[in-house]
Write a structure and sequence with these properties.
Shape: globular
Largest sheet: 6 strands, antiparallel, barrel
Radius of gyration: 15 Å
Strand order of the largest sheet: 1-2-3-6-5-4
Strand content: over 45%
Helix content: under 10%
Structural class: mainly beta
Number of strands: 6
């Protein structure tokens, strides 16, 4: 388990909102909801020293944030100028003070 006192990174939380395209079709856009301190750890898909992907597949990160942000599935995250979508959200412990988020990089 990481030291949860080391929230030295920032994570942008984006809430989905229903929008209408210019042609009248329904779609979703994401509105910035908050920027929160977090603990971040890459759990799959590292980069080489040249900035190229070392392993096949998309990067997966583990983020730990304080609970109470209203964050849920369907939201998007930004970390280190990249966008992520949550794959799994767990509580840190039975008290529900922290959330562990496993998120996959979004292909744009």
């Amino acid at each position: 388990m990481p030291d949860i006192g080391s929230f030295r990174f920032e994570l942008g939380l984006y809430q989905p909102t229903q929008a209408t395209t210019g042609t009248g079709q329904a779609g979703y856009s994401f509105v910035h909801s908050a920027t929160v301190p977090c603990h971040a750890k890459s759990v799959r898909g590292r980069l080489t020293d040249d900035g190229e992907q070392e392993m096949a597949g998309r990067r997966t990160y583990q983020f730990i944030i304080r609970a109470g942000t209203g964050f849920d599935y369907g939201w998007e995250l930004t970390y280190d100028t990249r966008r992520y979508r949550p794959e799994r959200i767990d509580n840190w412990d039975e008290r529900g003070r922290f959330q562990i988020i496993y998120a996959i990089e979004v292909d744009l």
